[in-house]
Amino acid sequence: MSKVIISCAVTGAVHTPTMSPHLPFTPDDIAAQAIEAAEAGAAILHLHARDPQTGKPTADPDVFMQFLPRIKQGTDAIVNITTGGGQGMSMDERLAAPLLASPELCSLNMGSMNFGMYPMLQRYPDFKYDWEAAHLEASRDWVFKNTFKDIEEILTRLGQGHGTKFEFECYDTAHLYTLAHFLDRKLVTPPLFVQSIFGILGGAGADTENLLHAKRIADKLFGDDYRWSVMAAGRHQIPFITMGALNGANVRVGLEDSLYAGKGRLARSNAEQVSLIRSILEPLSLDIATPAEARGILALKGGDNTNF
């Protein structure tokens, strides 16, 4: 096995400030937690932006630019910027920051899907900010849109236009076949970085059978031309990605995916989750990849070739 790449999704666009006082949403906190996560062992930092006053997800490139340069100055970790953005964002809004920053890596959801966050409403009687409850409730009738045309646009504008590579986010095995379609059309080039995602309402469930099936399909479609990674939402995060690592996967943690670092215990930072998974994997004789090693494994263009 090659070394395990740890990705850390620092803030995301799902959880809201009421859910955890440790969820970073100001540029200062996002930068500080990202750098700490890298120091703990994360080779890749997956980044969204939020309104500094309310914590609401935003696509504003000016907000991204308040923390991207600071992260680059503070660590050599790979910066991975979302192209999914958040609920209600147009394609132009979702691409504004990546096109400006020209990062080494961007996330790319491989299809349209229902994305249900509304069950979390039941857990919180009150919310700190007015937007939070409405944001969760709106997901009851929300379809995240990434059509074949949308994916082609992202691959063309960012991939071909900027030399950016992608973390292909696959929420079901159908998304693997969509990725194979774009590989056949030569709009993507190996090695592919395939992120299998489990436990999101609307995607594949966090079941062992789904994990192994996803690997079987990816092996069939991509052979040696891909690098696999696994993430799981909520309470499934640590046990599921541990199973993934034991089956040859890289792993993703972060407060975007889970707010916890143990049963009933809120993670105090993204770095705590990175340290936790590292403390599990290293005694299993799984070595952790440095940012430089991850760049080599994924054939990235290098941090000097970005615009931040």
TrEMBL record:
Task: List keywords of the entry alphabetically.
Answer: Metal-binding, Transferase, Zinc
Presence of the UniProt keyword Transferase in the record:
yes
Q: Which GO terms describe its molecular function?
A: 3-keto-5-aminohexanoate cleavage activity; metal ion binding
Report the source organism.
Novosphingobium guangzhouense
Kindly provide the name given to this protein in its UniProt entry.
3-keto-5-aminohexanoate cleavage protein
User: Secretion signal: which residues?
Assistant: none
So which cofactors does this thing need? Zn(2+)
* Entry keyword annotation includes Transferase: yes
Instruction: List the Gene3D superfamilies.
Output: Aldolase class I
Pfam entry (one): BKACE
Tell me which InterPro entries the record gives.
Answer: Aldolase_TIM (IPR013785), BKACE (IPR008567)
